[in-house]
Write a structure and sequence with these properties.
The chain is mainly beta. It has one helix and eleven strands; from the N terminus they run ββββββββββαβ.
């Protein structure tokens, strides 16, 4: 049986290329495809980054994008386990196992998917501390302090 009814469709963004977490979503990395109207909400795309890894061909839905804030000069964005709810732009104190610490700014908050799995956030730290923060975070030897 054929469906000859003309269903209303509209353009929706799909990834034209693989996008790494934190990578800006540029117009050239998007391909627009027709989908049934009302089936998906188009996310804001201006000034956004990939909140998670997005594979080429995947639809770009709201849960996969995050607002972009520019990295301060001489900083690197490092993946760090962050508490949920700590927002973008929040200043944090990252404490190492030996008691030393370094300041950072959340550039991408941690997120939780529909199954309850959380992903690390990205924290901008001075380039001189980036390696130490990354290593401590990977080893579970980093505590994130947030001023209430």
């Amino acid at each position: 049986m054929w469906d000859l009814a003309e269903r209303a469709t509209g353009p929706f963004p799909f990834a034209a290329v693989d996008l790494a977490r934190g990578q800006p979503i540029a117009p050239e990395s998007i391909v627009w495809r027709q989908v049934p109207r009302g089936s998906l909400q188009t996310p804001p795309l201006d000034g956004t980054t990939a909140a998670k890894e997005i594979k080429a061909g995947d639809p770009i839905v709201r849960s996969l994008v995050s607002g972009a804030i520019p990295l301060p000069p001489n900083t690197w964005a490092v993946p760090v386990p962050l508490p949920l709810g700590a927002g973008q732009g929040t200043v944090v104190n990252l404490v190492f196992a030996d008691g030393s610490d370094v300041a950072g700014t959340i550039v991408q908050p941690a997120s939780e998917d529909s199954l309850g799995f959380t992903s690390d956030g990205l924290v901008a730290v001075h380039r001189s501390a980036a390696n130490a923060v990354a290593l401590a975070a990977a080893n579970g030897d980093l505590v994130v302090l947030i001023r209430p």
